[in-house]
From TrEMBL:
MF-aspect GO terms: hydrolase activity
Full protein name: Alpha/beta fold hydrolase
Keywords: Hydrolase
Matches recorded under InterPro entries: AB_hydrolase_1, AB_hydrolase_fold, AB_hydrolase_sf, WH-like_DNA-bd_sf
Phylogenetic placement of the source organism: Bacteria, Bacillati, Bacillota, Bacilli, Bacillales
């Protein structure tokens, strides 16, 4: 069967399960292949699940596309296909570079993706050996006929080198794909920010690797499991990259067990594993790990204000002598002169008096941050300069970074997913009890950024007729807005009119009229 997508016809095969409550598994093939390579898996999984197999554009039986292909457009095509089949919830099984289509679909429609399974995912990284391999692969692709390139790939994809028929199928599948399209998709996959973007997809994830896979070896699967914080990873014995072709029984069993697993619950804290994950992420990002600190100053200022020095909570003393304001300024800047503190935090107080008061404030502040015997002091108060000499973990600073990242995100699917995550964070007051100019400026930065993002997210949801989600974004934006209330009320009124909700329409029109009355 086929469906007309954005610029080509998608070839697909849907095998419904007789059980109306059966889950639907979507099988996405890798570059140069086709949906036919899942055929060994279909009879094994169709006993319990409905199955949807489709070909990428220019692959298998799908039509060619005249437009530039992106993983975002391919995810949108898949969304349209699911919509046409009235499929509202799926488990995504993706091989090779198709993991980026799966990831974008999960960002585009989070509620429709239940779980994700990556089989031998294509992961761009900077290891010299893999960079050399990728360069050699790219050179062969550019200089040799597709048949020669496909023959070289066949030896890497399968763990059964003596299977001439399978090698012929791999070569024929690659020959079906134009070299230009293949290079375009390969380059797209090579430019993916796998670690940064996967962090925003909060779905149970299993990673499968073949024991004999040289491109995505078991060691890399373990690292990916740690980097992506995956729920599980498994190694298929006697299989190479195409685990579902080399060992369909093992692969189908792994998939079935993962899909049927009870809902995932957060486990107990694992400090050693968490530290190992963080170290791997730092190394993967190409940065050297910083020297370990004796202590960490943890500041929670979204919701209840809390401060901990290492494992020791500091509960009292923050609401007196401007301790909270001084802490936030130093946490943000790490150091400041006495003059800067006075001018920024106490601009309405005469300077000589502010300097005298500051001595009292700093004496109180230093007692709050006293370290235990034998530990290096986390605060240095010199004649002219005050410094925080400690690693700082502040939820507000993370929020500011995430707001900036979402504002600069060009991919609308990921941007919307980031906005969903941000809306969950922005459900409590920020810096409660802080009224100094610096703290107020921080709060206004958050409010202005979220005002723009919530309006964008609401408009994006309205384009897809997801009006309930749009209303939630608008209500959140109103809560943190800085004065552009009419922009929100106009949109809420328009949504109420579209959905025929007379009660909400009256409510928002009344609120809009009230906002227009001069105070």
């Amino acid at each position: 069967m086929a469906l007309l997508a954005t610029s080509y016809r998608i070839s697909y095969e849907f095998t419904p399960n007789p059980d109306p409550d059966a889950k639907t598994i979507v099988l996405l093939h890798g570059l140069g292949l086709s949906g036919s390579f899942w055929r060994s898996l279909i009879p094994l999984l169709s006993v319990r699940y409905s199955l949807l197999v489709c070909d990428l554009p220019g692959h298998g039986l799908s039509g060619e596309t005249s437009e530039d292909v992106t993983f975002a457009t391919l995810a949108e095509d898949l969304r349209l296909l699911l919509e046409s089949l009235n499929i509202s919830s799926v488990v995504l099984v993706a091989h090779d570079a198709s993991v980026y289509i799966a990831r974008r679909l999960a960002a585009l429609t989070p509620s429709s993706v239940e779980r994700m399974i990556y089989i031998s995912p294509y992961m761009p990284h900077t290891l010299p050996a893999t960079l050399t391999e990728l360069q050699d692969r790219r050179l062969l692709l550019e200089q040799a006929p597709m048949t020669v390139y496909a023959a070289a790939m066949a030896h890497k994809l399968t763990g059964t080198p003596g299977d001439a028929l399978l090698h012929q199928r791999i070569v024929q599948a690659h020959e079906r794909v134009s070299k230009a399209l293949y290079i375009q998709l390969l380059d797209l996959a090579g430019s993916e920010q796998a670690l940064h973007e996967q962090a925003h997809i909060r779905k149970p994830l299993m990673i499968i690797s073949g024991e004999l896979d040289a491109s995505f070896p078991p060691g890399m699967a373990h690292i990916a499991h740690m980097l992506f914080d995956a729920s599980a990873f498994l190694i298929v014995p006697g299989a190479s990259n195409l685990t579902f072709v080399d060992q369909p029984l093992y692969t189908s069993d792994f998939i079935d067990r993962f899909v049927r697993k009870t809902p995932f619950e957060p486990g107990k804290p694992k400090p050693v594993e968490d530290e190992l994950k963080q170290t791997l992420r730092v190394l993967w990002s190409g940065r050297l790990p910083s020297a370990p600190e004796r202590n960490r100053l943890t500041i929670r200022c979204i919701g209840t204000f809390e401060v901990s020095l290492g494992q020791r909570p500091i509960r009292l003393g923050w609401n007196t002598r401007h301790a909270k304001s001084i802490l936030m300024y130093l946490a943000y800047h790490r150091s400041a002169t006495r003059e800067q503190l006075c001018e920024t935090l106490f601009p309405e107080t005469a300077f000589p008096k502010a300097m005298r008061n500051l001595r009292v404030y700093l004496n109180h502040f230093s007692k709050l941050l006293e370290t235990e015997d034998g530990q290096e002091p986390c605060l240095t108060i010199e004649r002219d300069t005050i410094k925080l000499n400690i690693e700082i973990d502040c939820d507000l600073f993370v929020l500011l970074r995430d707001l900036q990242s979402a504002s600069e995100q060009a991919d609308s699917a990921y941007k919307l997913n980031q906005c969903v995550t941000l809306s969950e964070q922005l459900q409590s007051k920020i810096l409660s009890g802080c009224f100094d100019p610096f703290s107020i400026a921080l709060k206004e930065t958050v409010e202005q950024a979220w005002e723009q993002l919530s309006l964008w997210a609401a408009d994006n949801c309205c384009e897809r007729e997801q009006y309930a989600e749009a209303v939630r974004f608008l209500q959140s934006g109103l809560q943190y807005g800085t004065g552009e209330e009419l922009l929100f009320y106009d949109r809420l009124i328009a949504i109420s009119q579209r959905t025929g909700n007379a009660k909400e329409l009256r409510k928002w029109m009344r609120m809009r009229k009230k906002a227009c009355v001069p105070t």
